Amino acid sequence: MCNELQRLVNKYDELKKYYKGKRSDFKEETCKIDFINPFFRLLGWDIENTKGLEPHLREVIYEQNLRGTGRSDYTMTLSGVPVYFVEAKKPDVDITTDPEPAFQIRRYGWSANLKISVLTNFEYLIIYDTTIPPVEKDNCDVAILRKYHYKEYNDKYEEIYKLLSRETVYCGNFEKVLIETFGSNEQKGLKLPVDEYFLKQINTWRLQLGNYLYKEKKFPLEIINDVVQRFINQIIFLRICEDRNLPLYHALSKVIEDESILIDEMNKLFKEADKRYNAGLFSGKHIVFDLNSDIIKNIVETLYFPKSPYEFKFIKPNLLGRIYELFLTESLILDGCGNLVLYNKVKRKDRDVNRDIVTTPVEIVKYMVNKSLDELCQNKTPKEIFNLKIADIACGSGIFLIEVFEYLVRYCVNWYKNNDKNHLIVTQDGDFKLPIEDKKMILRSCIFGIDIDAHAVEVTKFNLLLKLLDDETEPSIRNENPALPNIDSNIMLGNSLVDFDIIDYAALSQDDKDVILPFDWSLINNGKKFDLIIGNPPYVNTEDMNNLLPNEELKVYKSKYKTSYQQFDKYFLFIERGLQKIKEQGYLCYIVPNKFTKIKSGMKLRELLARNKYVVEYIDFGSAQLFTDKTIYSSILLLKKSAQSNFRYSEINNLHEWWGNPNKYNSMLISSNVLTETPWVLVPDKGKMEIINKLYLNSQKLKEVADTFNGVQTS
């Protein structure tokens, strides 16, 4: 391997003067083909997709011969999930002194929330830390982690291979290697990833807007959170549309040029956006007239270069979803000095018991969606796909629904490629995409969500509409009027565990009505059941529910749900409710703590699943931690509402390795008869599993042959 690298280095060395000469016509694309592509092939990457993987699973997304796309030249992925970018330049661009290429790749990588990204003209290969926000005045040396000259490539091949190779990424060691080599991200210093940075900026706007409306315009506190979030959503939506060259009355930057007419121009922009997109984002009364020009101008300016480090093309809806998950943990309240401040519901004792905020890793979301929908969509035509009904009944920011939407769009594209290619639109890079009319049909007909948090409902709608506009251009939506559907009847507010049939609503106090928010299931999907319910339901233990929920709500849980046994957790109820709301032969897929399989309070839930033989797949992540800043022992539970003779079981101890090499982990096909209401004892080893089965077959419960009692307790 190093001999091949040495030959590449020698070839460059021989012709370097030509490549860098003033009259040289050696182009960037030629540099990529002759040197950069072979270099990364030596690191194990399948640049040209010789394995024939589908676009969403390719190891490398390679922008060949495309200029002005606003994307990096290479995206190195872990089964389609971006890991790092590579930006290529031709050799006569001095990437060691010219700050522009460094700023470009850092901006790309930072906006996509990546740990590192790479800049190379082959003569040099530079690895940048892209957790540090890029600033226009930065020189080339800011955020450099490693810089290699081409004459060092052979001697330092092992080091480069360890950092950037496909093997490191697909063995699940990438982040571990980065920490071992460069130190932990917790030693932050200048580091501030895009999600934290964007959230910090949004919260600054919230405080500015909230305090102005409260103090100057005398807005009541109870509506300020709503109107402020709505205004911020509108501004971000317009800015993202602008960056994608989608039609707008004016760019936001143009609106703020003349402060004397800024308010009127912003109002015109909002009205035109309402006419053009008509998705409820801009309908109703705006707070533009209640704000002063300075506040609006300040917010808009921070969304543009040079004040903004964002490259909005890389801020995808799923990343925005993660940002909004954090956003939902905080709200504006009045402090003792008469100022509005941000109040963190999770860190305080009286936190929101309807949501224990965790951001589900994108690999987990993709796996759950792929696994569920592979089963559900098999051999269906697009017309049949349009009839599927899929819901997340605790949808949060909508990250599962975004992934479901993306899957269904991709499925239809692949179907038409094989059956009716003329139905599709050819993209700039020669691929195909679905007409926006079909995408709107999928969103309106197939995607549903419920959440008890009104802000979460708005965020989910916002994120889904942004996702709908992915890959759209001005020509592709020119004749679409309105460009976006109204999805108010798809994504709805309410408590999916409490409906009007199981609570005496008239007897509730107004405060209890406002907190419990019973949901009318007849209003969503015409009151019909779903083909799939998917998501990450709230995890809330009995103690927190006893302390923080209204008594009437807790009574419903204890009297109406069979799984509310002893010290039950709220996610038990979501599994039971999900099963109630899916069709016969329908699917339910949740990521939940794995303790329900062992603890005494999980007995009724285990009994429900085992007696009906609902389990299709159970994946136990053991002690592997999937969530940042949370200690949760997780599992994925895939159920089907029909009796299964067998189920598939896996134990996973490394998320990234599993996602990159799912076949490396043995999964066992186990008889459903093994599962009972007793604790589940499962191992991914056939021999051991047979022994366990025999033990259970001939065993007696201890209570049948002996009396048990507590011994002397010393503390």
UniProtKB/TrEMBL annotation:
Pfam families: Eco57I, HSDR_N. The keyword Iron-sulfur does not apply. GO terms for molecular function: nucleic acid binding; site-specific DNA-methyltransferase (adenine-specific) activity. Residues 446-627 form the Type II methyltransferase M.TaqI-like domain. One of its GO terms (biological process) is methylation. Residues 26-131 form the Restriction endonuclease type I HsdR N-terminal domain. Keywords: Methyltransferase, S-adenosyl-L-methionine, Transferase. It catalyses: a 2'-deoxyadenosine in DNA + S-adenosyl-L-methionine = an N(6)-methyl-2'-deoxyadenosine in DNA + S-adenosyl-L-homocysteine + H(+). Its EC number is 2.1.1.72. PANTHER family: DNA METHYLTRANSFERASE A, DNA METHYLTRANSFERASE YEEA-RELATED. This is site-specific DNA-methyltransferase (adenine-specific).
